[in-house]
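Build the 3D complex.
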Amino acid sequence: MTRSDIDGAALEYAAGGGLLSRRMLLASAAAGTAAGLLQPRAARAEAEIPEWTKAAGARARGYGTPAAAESAVQRAIIEPWQDVAPAFSLSGTPHQRLRGTITPNGLHYEVHHGGRPDIDPARHRLMIHGLVERPLQFGLEALERYPMVTATHFLECAGNSLFNAVMPEPMQAGCDMLHGLVSNTEWSGIPMRVLMEEAGVQPEGKWVVAAGADGPSLARSIPMEKIMQDGMLALYQNGERIRPEQGYPMRLLLPGFEGNMNIKWLTSLWVTEAPVHTKDESGEYTEILADGSSVQFTFAMGVKSFITHPSATMTMSGPGFYEISGLAWSGAGKVAKVEVSADGGQSWAEAALAEPVLPQALTRFSLPWHWDGSPLVLMSRATDETGAVQPARADWKARYHASNFLHYNAIQPWQVTAEGAVQNVYL
Amino acid sequence: MSIFKLTAAALLLTAAAARAEGPGLGQPLEAADIPFYATYVKPDGAGLPGGSGTAAQGAEIYAAKCASCHGKTGSEGPVMPPVGPNDVWAKPAGSYWPYATTLFDYIRRAMPLEAPKSLSDDEAYALAAYILERNGVIDAQTAMTAETLPAVKMPNHGNFLDVWAKQGAKPW
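Done.
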């Protein structure tokens, strides 16, 4: 650890590239260089009073919307076959424009294999059938009367970060396109176990085939063990009813498991002895390995992180102090630590994690940084509580067939150029 | 039903309600009220309906309803062409999927994208036959039925590792 003086501020370095000790208060460090900016300018003859300070404001409204000046904060839409199959439609959360850990409901990522259905909640029902003692169906009104639980969890599409996984050259795009198919929500609903016990699962009932009420009736086989452990029938998303994009009026939530299994517009839970090999678990969500064989039923998402501030498409506003900030998560549990490098991986410093660190939830990390204006590479590397560590891209690629774009969780390097441009690079 | 049996049944119901932590508001679900898409055809063929279709019949339906997304002959795409090998999609349904039964079920429930559940059982069998024949998995003469479809041996069957069975929820 070294110390130096810049503009009178004593800096405690944690690693190369200007990474500062997280024990340093950014405010006190920044005081050295920023002090000049904080000096009041010479008093004007007449200080400006903005017009909104001289008028009555708008009246209360029934449902609020973001400030008009924030209208550019949108999901990035990805439609791979918009000419022939427009309903196969995705959108990514603009993480480069967000802070904290909770994803606003209107910015939660979407992956629709057959478009977003328009469901009449009064006619929607949830069926539980198959290997149960009592086949049952539930309307929304009945479900509203069940005791509910609340938990914060990420959802991540198995195909998140697919461009980095398969493109030979790194695509220059923001975190919304590159890593936007992950979002984080406070979900409220009914423990799946309560509903399954009401139906009475027979001893040979080891799997549950969940199906949605969308056009394709998307279906996945789910181990009964997971359903009973922490599966939730989610009815609320950050306090309000689940949005149509996320499965209105109800969805299945399987903490840590790939997004596709968290069936939206859930209408059926069919208890079976074994998985039924639905389309999505036969090809769309299996991974071909380097030797040509495949892995299937790869449910949990691996440990992962990326720096959101700064990130690709951003421009640095000159040398000086910044806070590096980003998101980390693991389908296996809590994030144990996140290390940050500002010299392309030669040295690392441990970032601070924002409390509370929750299992299977996005965790915000941060570290103060003094950028001296020279080109360098920033990256973050997460470790989860099971000891799993994010791999380098080359190591991830070596495990899989060249075509595989699923379950990509490699380290994301960002190149900062001398001009202050931030770019996506492979290391 | 005797008084004894009624009492026993009532006690059983009470016991079940006591085990559950909810208010027990589920309504009985009759088999007749379960639509086909709430189940799935199993690899052994359980759940397959009557009906049949050949590759030749499937070719006509394919040209009319499928080719615009999956390509003229099923290998061109752009959308996940089911005939392989091709240059677009490494996991063509008709050769990569482990079970042929999935073809019938998925076509019947989800295809075509703009009009899912519009195909008859015969049409779904015929399309499954066409895709399998184009992949060289079955010959042109064999009609696909509830008996023949589950008997089809898929070439990539046995080339999958079940990660859940191997290591549970631990990420691969």
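DSSP finds seven helices and two strands in chain B.
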